[in-house]
Task: inverse folding
DNA sequence: CAGGAGATGCGCT
DNA sequence: GCGCATCTCCTGA
C-alpha cells in the first residue's frame, strides 16, 4: 500500500517469503536490494544451494560450526570466509527442515557510491564494484561479524529490501560458477543484460557453456 | 576478452 | 594436508 502522492518506501522482505525452496528464492531475490549502512546493492546474479541432495552445498555433510546458520530460520545472512582472503554472503532459505541458501553473486550499487568506490579501488568501472560474490560483500562491508544477522528485522544493520520486480522474461539461468561438483544443475540466475553479471568460469577447467532463457 | 598463476586462512577429511 | 561457492595481475590475441 502506498500513501497518495509519495512513492512507497522500500519494503523489507519477510521471513515467510523467503521460507521457500532455494531455487525459487533465488529468482525472488533478483531485483531485490541489500542495504548495509549507506551502501545499497540491487541483486543481479544469484545462485541456489540446497541441502541434503546438493553435494556443492556447504550443508551437504551435515551441521558444523561454520554452516549452522543455514540450519536456522530463513531470511538470515550466512557469511563465510573463502580462499584465505574473501567473504561470500548468502540468504538462508530453509524450508521444512531442509537447509538451503542463495549465494549473492553480483549486483549494481544503487546507493552509497562513494563509499563503495573507496572500498573497492581496484574497480575500473562502477559496474564492476559488485561484480562477483567477494566484491559484492566487499562494497557492503560484510565480514565474519555479520554472519547470522536477520535481514528481515527492521533494526538489523543489514537489511533485504524489495526492489523493482524483474520480469520473468529477463531472468536467465545457467550452470553454477566456481564449484567443482554439480555444475550441470542450472541453479544460477541473473538479470539479462546487466553489466554487473560475472563472466562464467567453470570450477577446474575452463569451457564455455550455453545460457538458457527461463520460462 | 580469455586463460593462467599466485595470494592466503581455515574447515574438514 | 588438501582444496576451496575468488580476485587481481599479467600475458597473448
Result:
Amino acid at each position: 500500500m502506498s500513501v497518495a502522492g509519495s512513492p512507497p518506501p522500500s519494503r523489507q522482505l519477510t521471513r515467510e517469503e523467503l521460507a521457500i525452496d532455494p531455487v525459487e528464492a533465488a529468482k525472488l531475490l533478483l531485483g531485490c536490494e541489500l542495504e548495509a549502512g549507506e551502501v545499497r546493492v540491487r541483486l543481479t546474479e544469484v545462485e541456489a544451494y540446497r541441502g541434503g541432495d546438493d553435494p556443492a552445498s556447504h550443508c551437504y555433510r551435515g551441521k558444523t560450526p561454520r554452516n549452522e546458520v543455514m540450519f536456522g530460520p530463513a531470511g538470515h545472512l550466512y557469511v563465510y570466509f573463502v580462499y584465505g582472503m574473501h567473504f561470500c554472503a548468502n540468504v538462508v532459505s530453509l524450508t521444512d527442515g531442509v537447509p538451503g541458501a542463495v549465494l549473492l553473486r553480483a549486483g549494481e550499487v544503487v546507493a552509497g557510491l562513494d563509499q563503495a568506490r573507496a572500498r573497492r579501488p581496484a574497480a575500473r568501472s562502477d559496474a564492476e564494484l559488485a561484480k562477483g560474490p567477494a566484491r559484492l560483500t566487499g562494497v557492503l562491508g560484510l565480514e565474519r561479524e555479520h554472519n547470522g544477522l536477520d535481514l528481515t528485522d527492521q533494526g538489523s544493520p543489514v537489511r533485504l529490501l524489495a526492489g523493482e520486480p524483474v520480469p520473468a522474461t529477463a531472468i536467465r539461468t545457467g550452470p553454477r560458477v566456481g564449484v567443482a561438483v554439480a555444475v550441470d544443475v542450472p541453479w544460477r540466475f541473473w538479470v539479462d543484460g546487466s553489466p554487473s553479471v560475472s563472466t562464467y568460469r567453470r570450477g577446474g577447467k575452463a569451457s564455455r557453456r550455453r545460457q538458457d532463457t527461463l520460462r
